[in-house]
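Step 1: inspect the first sequence and its tokens.
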Amino acid sequence: MNIVFFSFLVTFIAGLSTLLGLIPIYFKIKNINILISLSLAFAAGVMLSVSINSLLIESFNLTNNLLSVILFVLIGILISKIINKILKNIDNKLYKLGIMNSIALMIHNIPEGILTFSTTTININLGLQLALSIIFHNIPEGISISVPIYYSTNSKKKAWFYTIISGFSEFLGALLTYIFMYRYINDSFIGIILALTTGIMIYISLVELVPNSLSYKQKKITYISFIIGYIFMLFFK
């Protein structure tokens, strides 16, 4: 199979998994808070596990420069912090929350698409592992868009629209990579992208997902789901 086509396919499937976050709007759930708390904490564990045990190690192996890896991890954290600061200035009404989640996740998913496509072209096993972790955290991301939009508008069409936009941005990242950056992809490039993404994922996991999960007053569910998510991804190393 053509490696470029396969990389596009892997990235497309990873992005498409965001649509699984639409499932809750089709069921009558008595306590949606428990579902969201569990999903966010599980995704946080998955992201942190992949960041530390896969992306960080692979970044160092590719760049062979510890200072460079640390620098770009910190830059990734800084980028996430800046985005977070911008979004905090926005009114958190339910409908706007869903829209802003969609916009924020588009910003997040484009570099994810770049990373997944680039990594798969260089290392299929690592690319598949990365795509799997993205699938698991894209599901609660989809929930974070579809649930606020649906429960504020009672419109499944709007929930679908904003969720699709977020998921498709992953494929857009892959397309941009192929058109503009494919010829420049090498070990150092991938190593830098991995380090940046490590910083972004660590920040999102510990600063965004875990605190948001805890905000639903389900501490035991948060901690247990986080641990399960972390351990679960160790089996895909």
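Step 2: inspect the second sequence and its tokens, then contrast the two.
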Amino acid sequence: MVGPQPPGVIDHPSPSFGERRGGARPDLIVLHYTAMHSAEAALERLCDRSAEVSAHYLVCERGRVWQMVPEEARAWHAGAGRWGRVEDVNSRSIGIELANTGAHPFPDPQMVALAALMRGIMARWNIPPQRVIGHSDMAPHRKHDPGPRFDWRRLARQGLSVWPAEGRAPGDFHADARRFGYAVPDVSDSADDLSLRAFRLRFRPWATGPLDDTDRALMADLAARFPVDRTAGDP
């Protein structure tokens, strides 16, 4: 790990990790929810050798934080997916699990602890707010965590994530989605639906219906201000 362990973090090692491939350094943070009935149950699974899953950190509803994998190591949290040109997300990211079933809000003590943890990680590895994503952003075909109840706007207000500004003219939604980081194939109606779903899950969680000009305008703003290739350390 780079530097001392964050204050108040409980060391609880997982056997499921390895070296980051190709000498990669973390330049992404990926947020998840556990979808389990308790933080303790999630901790047990994330440290179970037979499960072959892990994350760097787990944050419980009461604000307790466990570290399972050193930050310089490759945890097994992201799986198949991509963000921009990054396909091996595990080698380029730090994974944070939030104890939540996916059906209830994230309590204030948990969000406060998450913010403090993220500030330290982002400072240690020089990770900008636009490189903080959800599991659903990089794997919309199979994941929807941290889900519609996660308060992304709160993180953005603290400089820990990004949020689209209103007032920009609508653009080409799918071209802008690619510029922002979503993996949208050139021709695929189902993929187009997935990119809209991932975008709304994070930025318009209660929106319904087909793609509209609000979606187009907000995505155009994200693409204009935070194009993934400008900020990523991609080769």
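Step 3: confirm your contrast with the notes below.
The longest strand covers residues 28-33. Residues 9-157 form a domain with the Lysozyme-like fold (CATH 3.40.80.10).
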